[in-house]
């Protein structure tokens, strides 16, 4: 139930505190939910306004202040659509953010507009080529071809067949493949990782370079220039040295990794455990030259980061990191969090109005300098988020 409430200075908004550990801001005129305040571990029993700051106190023995502008970024309505309730294996911005490319788990390629969010083209897999994507798919620079694995000893590439459908090519790989990443600037070279320490830069059947990563591979990423690649493994985070064979240990065990635009840093979702029994322990920013941790985030929501690849991404010229978290005991819905890379503070969140976990994400700094985020959930709902007020803004939310 609701424990407390307080009106803003001019009575246009009201903030409430509740037993579900969440504060909520409503419009007094329309009753519309404008945003949520998430971060307390127990009941929120006191709230107040000081100008544009919202103050909250909780039985978790903490008091926090929140900038109203950040809270209102949590608008739960969003712009959403469903691609006929088909679970997606990948989704990407293309054509400068004007369109989206998506791939369903059953390998149907979708082209959609973003304004409005509408399906333009639906290219189903050719008859007789039945396959299912087991992990996340990655889109080539040409915006047409997807690379992915099916846990077999191969990796696959799907592409338009010129007849309104999708064709599929399969290539041998020396292990059960788990993760694929196209090399930036190349429509032929794919970094493929699998169980048993296999990691190779593939060009069709040919391995142009191989690395022994000695651990269960969780995720990998390239710098935008394609000159740095980093792999997140269950026993360490490693940088792949040019030419193959050699690697350099640069960080702790991790389950997701994103390399910054300048190739100097990596954001990693750190983890503990092994095999299939692992869990997130936080978000760290690693210096890829020294291996030192530059920044750590201790937001409890991030301890429920999704166990999947491509779970954290840089935006705003490496100023912020977007992280997906699953529904949890703290909040019964999945969350998109935006973290300031300079200090580890969470500056805003988006809460799904549904309990269904997110599966895929992509980010883009648009032509106007505003970061765009697209996420989809397990049943194919798609959300387009514009994270306003981030570029050029100092962090004002504090504990």
UniProtKB/TrEMBL annotation:
<dbReference type="InterPro" id="IPR015943">
    <property type="entry name" value="WD40/YVTN_repeat-like_dom_sf"/>
</dbReference>
<dbReference type="InterPro" id="IPR036322">
    <property type="entry name" value="WD40_repeat_dom_sf"/>
</dbReference>
<dbReference type="Pfam" id="PF00400">
    <property type="entry name" value="WD40"/>
</dbReference>
<dbReference type="InterPro" id="IPR001680">
    <property type="entry name" value="WD40_rpt"/>
</dbReference>
<protein>
    <recommendedName>
        <fullName>Anaphase-promoting complex subunit 4 WD40 domain-containing protein</fullName>
    </recommendedName>
</protein>
<keyword id="KW-0853">WD repeat</keyword>
<dbReference type="InterPro" id="IPR011047">
    <property type="entry name" value="Quinoprotein_ADH-like_sf"/>
</dbReference>
<feature type="repeat" description="WD">
    <location>
        <begin position="37"/>
        <end position="67"/>
    </location>
</feature>
């Amino acid at each position: 139930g609701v424990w407390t409430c307080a009106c803003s200075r001019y009575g246009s908004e009201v903030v409430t505190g509740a037993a579900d550990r969440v504060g909520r801001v409503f419009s007094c005129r329309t009753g519309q939910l404008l945003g949520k305040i998430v971060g307390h571990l127990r009941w929120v029993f006191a709230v107040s306004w000081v100008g544009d700051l919202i103050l909250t106190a909780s039985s978790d023995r903490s008091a926090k202040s929140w900038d109203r502008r950040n809270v209102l970024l949590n608008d739960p309505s969003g712009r959403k659509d469903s691609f006929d309730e088909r679970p997606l294996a990948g989704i990407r911005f293309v054509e400068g953010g004007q369109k989206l490319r998506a791939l369903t788990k059953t390998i149907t390629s979708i082209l959609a507009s973003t304004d409005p969010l509408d399906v333009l083209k639906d290219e189903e897999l050719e008859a007789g080529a039945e396959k299912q994507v087991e992990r996340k798919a990655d889109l080539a620079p040409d915006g047409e071809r997807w690379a992915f694995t099916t846990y077999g000893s191969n990796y696959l590439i799907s592409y338009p067949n010129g007849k309104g459908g999708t064709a599929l090519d399969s290539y041998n790989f020396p292990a059960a493949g788990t993760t694929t990443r196209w090399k930036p600037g190349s429509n032929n070279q794919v970094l493929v990782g699998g169980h048993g320490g296999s990691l190779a830069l593939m060009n069709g059947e040919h391995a142009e370079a191989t690395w022994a990563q000695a651990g269960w591979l969780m995720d990998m990423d390239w710098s935008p220039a394609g000159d740095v690649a980093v792999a997140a493994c269950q026993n360490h985070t490693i940088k792949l040295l040019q030419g193959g064979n050699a690697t350099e240990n640069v960080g702790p065990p991790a389950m997701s990794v994103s390399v910054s635009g300048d190739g100097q840093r990596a954001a990693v979702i750190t983890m503990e455990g092994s095999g299939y029994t692992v869990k997130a322990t936080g978000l760290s920013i690693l210096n890829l030259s020294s291996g030192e941790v530059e920044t750590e985030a201790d937001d409890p929501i991030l301890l429920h980061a999704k166990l999947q690849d491509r779970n954290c991404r840089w935006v705003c010229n490496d100023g912020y990191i977007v992280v997906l978290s699953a529904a949890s005991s703290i909040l019964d819905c999945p969350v998109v969090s935006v973290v300031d890379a300079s200090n580890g503070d969470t500056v805003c969140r988006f809460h799904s109005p549904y309990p269904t976990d997110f599966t895929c994400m992509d980010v883009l700094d648009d032509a106007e300098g505003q970061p765009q985020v697209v996420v989809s959930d397990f049943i194919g709902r798609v959300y387009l988020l514009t994270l306003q007020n981030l570029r050029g803004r100092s962090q004002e939310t504090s504990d």
